[in-house]
Amino acid sequence: MSSETKQILTTDGIPLEVSLKKAEKKNKIKAFLLVAPLLLFIIITYVFPIGDMLMRSVDDKMVTEMLPKTFKSMEKWDGQDLPPEEVFEAFYFDFQKLIEEEREGKLSTQLNYTKNGFKSIIKKLRRKSKSFEEGNYKEQIMSVHRRWADVEYWRAIKRRAPAYTYQKYLKGIDMYENEKGEIINVPEDRRVHRILWMRTLEIAFFVTVFCFLMAYPIAHLLATLPMKYSNLLMICVLLPFWTSLLVRTASWMILLQQQGIVNDFFVMIGLVSDDNRLEMMFNKTGSYVAMTQILLPFMVLPLYSVMKTISPSLMRAGKSLGGTPFVAFWKVYFPLTIPGIGAGCLLVFILAIGYYITPALVGGASGTLISNQIAFHMKSTLDWSFASAMGLMLLSGVLVIYWLYNKLVGIDNIKLG
Amino acid sequence: MSVNKEFVKFDKVDKSYDGKVLVVKDLQLDIAEGEFITMLGPSGSGKTTCLMMLAGFETPTNGEIYLDGNAISSIPPHKRGIGMVFQNYALFPHMTVYENLAFPLRVRKIPKDEADKKIDKALSMVSLQGFAQRMPGQLSGGQQQRVAVARSLVFDPQLVLMDEPLGALDKNLRESMQYEIKHIHESIGVTVVYVTHDQSEALTMSNRIAVFNDGKVQQLSSPDELYEKPVNSFVAEFIGENNTFAGEVSDISGGKCKVKLASADILANPISVKRKGERTTVSLRPERALINPSDKMDNIHKGKIEEVIYHGDHTRVRINLLGNSEFILKVPNSSSNLDIKLGNEIKIGWNSEDARALDPK
């Protein structure tokens, strides 16, 4: 046989290989066009906002753009003593321009984030600067308020010179960069975020554990019961899905409050006395109970779908080979459910870590999570860049968990249905 | 060494799942030590239920099962020490072949070096040496099947149950596995209870076959006896091919009976008919009827060829004979059968001894 294979031609003389590639290319384009709308949708609604969030969280251009001359003249200033006259002059002209554009208020807000006390002195400077004379701006500005003669405040302005900053991320873990550029912890009485991060992790972890403990037997029952009963049970599991999240959370409020049904029941059976009713709401307990119940289906369903595929003859084989029911379960059944456990735990943990409504309603002060803090900054302080920074920290936390999971269990092992 | 004739004993066992229908009725069955016994029957006949009761996954509603003289109904499955091969192999998919085989040894706390020897032995028995580190998913159906057999034997049980173990294999593989299991049984002398609905499997492998139908054992005998001498029309129908004539006994004398059909009388061997006037079904194996018989045969009738089907080594001929248009003949392929043509009238003959007059259907 000759080693050289003859080129195969199609009936119209084109090599078959070329013709096949052509046909394949057409199919590829068709396939791409089919997914294109979804791809576009994802890019617009997901990739783009996340990119925007990332930009926003490090963006510090606002002040940079508002004081261009000032920062240029500050380049030569070493920051030790008060800046020289030219810096004051440049600042005066930048400031005048801002007054013309009515943007000096924004400047004061921004500078106030960096150092408290800017707001009032900028207001004062605005009033007084109308009567400034030409020349010797240093003297004139310093005479407006004694803080303008304080080098700390000028250093604060200089810190806002770069167009990008990681200050918001530091703030997210209760740290900041001081005047000398060292990264240090904020005073202990003002550390709020670290507590929140830890609490978020703790609640997410325990909610996952509780969900697992409750879902495993339910899923097993679902997978082994005859169809007639398992369908009914499945409806019971899915029922919460069809009810509004708010309704479910509100019903927990009714159940858990101090004059609520659960407390009434405890009093009735004499577990607690009437004047010493348990506080189960507006604290961690509330978050645990409500979140576990709400996230339970996300654990049951992956477990169920995996258990459904495990043949009952495997347990029988385990027993017939001499394993006690426990050994058969632990050595045979349990390892086979690990993909479902992994999927369920990952799902519940990730959902719990970013949970918002339930902890906001039943969590109270000690049961709120990091997402509540993010919402707070989005809605109340309007510090969107800080909210973005924390949102991204949360996202990267989830990605780290995903990575860890992939390392430990392997993402290919995951089974959702 | 005396062989225990009642190694396994089903004693008046009844089984009902819903309390209304008995799936197994008054089962009485003794299995001797070292025997290969097959429970054969259509689906729903109660054979698998019997196996499950023996394995301990079902409990008898009434009666008792004895294993080597001990009542076992109250012993949980894991303490019975019975090996079992499941329909879909039931290999543990997350364990290697080695770990699958080590499982029964590990739960019995057998030291590792001894266990390794046993595993090697079991794997070589099914000629799968070198496969120990594979996962079951990497094996073909036949190989998985062998692993399942090896696993059921590795802890040296005295009794092995097999629940349609070859059902999922293709025909050729199934046949070679049949011989392999048979040889393993012969070489180690373990008692095997085998469940199948495939009659050829039962006939090739077993010492004895219990034909199940409707929760009852219809016949318990050796494969040849089962085929040659079925005791009722269910067994005759279920095992092998069968030509039947329904009629009424008109005379019975001297080990023969005359059966009156619609168009003629035939002579038959009275098995389950006792007196004149009884309804009966006469059963005749296709290979016992001959074309153009010698005059010695006591049944000779004419029939018309309706269909000729070529089967390679033999030809099947469908004949309309005595009002039965489904009468099948198997004719070995040789040059003498030249007059087998569609529409020809031919003479068919058989001995009355081979025509068994059984119960009416």
Report what the structure shows.
The complex is a heterodimer of chains A (417) and B (361). Chain A is built from 19 helices and two strands. Chain A is mainly α and 417 residues long. In chain A, strands 1-2 form a two-stranded antiparallel ribbon. In chain A, a hairpin with a 5-residue loop joins strand 1 (175-177) and strand 2 (183-185). The mean pLDDT of chain A is 85. By secondary structure, chain B is an alpha+beta fold. Chain B folds into two domains: 8-233, 3-Layer(aba) Sandwich (Rossmann fold); 241-358, Nucleic acid-binding proteins (OB fold (Dihydrolipoamide Acetyltransferase, E2P)), CATH 2.40.50. Chain B is elongated and about 75 Å long. In chain B, 40% of the residues are buried. The A-B interface holds A 311, 313-314, 316-325, 327-328, 331-332, 335-336 and B 55-57, 76-84, 86-88, 90-94, 103-104, 107-108, 151-152, 155, 161.
Describe, in short, the structure shown.
The complex is a heterodimer of chains A (417) and B (361). Chain A is built from 19 helices and 2 strands.
Fold topology:
The complex is a heterodimer of chains A (417) and B (361).
Chain A: H1 16-58, H2 61-66, H3 68-74, H4 85-100, H5 104-114, H6 118-129, H7 137-144, H8 151-159, H9 167-172, E1 175-177, E2 183-185, H10 193-224, H11 227-242, H12 245-256, H13 261-268, H14 284-308, H15 312-320, H16 325-353, H17 357-362, H18 370-381, H19 384-408
Antiparallel strand pairs in A: 1-2
Helix pairs in contact in A: 1-19, 3-4, 5-6, 10-11, 10-14, 10-16, 11-14, 12-14, 14-16, 15-16, 16-19, 18-19
Chain B: E1 8-16, E2 22-31, E3 36-40, H1 47-55, E4 62-67, E5 70-71, E6 83-85, H2 97-107, H3 112-125, H4 141-153, E7 159-163, H5 171-188, E8 191-196, H6 199-205, E9 208-213, E10 216-221, H7 223-228, H8 233-238, E11 243-253, E12 256-260, E13 265-270, E14 279-284, E15 290-291, E16 299-310, E17 314-321, E18 324-332, E19 345-350, E20 356-358
Parallel strand pairs in B: 3-8, 3-9, 6-7, 7-8, 13-20
Antiparallel strand pairs in B: 1-2, 1-4, 4-5, 9-10, 11-12, 11-14, 12-13, 14-20, 15-19, 16-17, 16-19, 17-18
Helix pairs in contact in B: 2-3, 2-4, 3-4
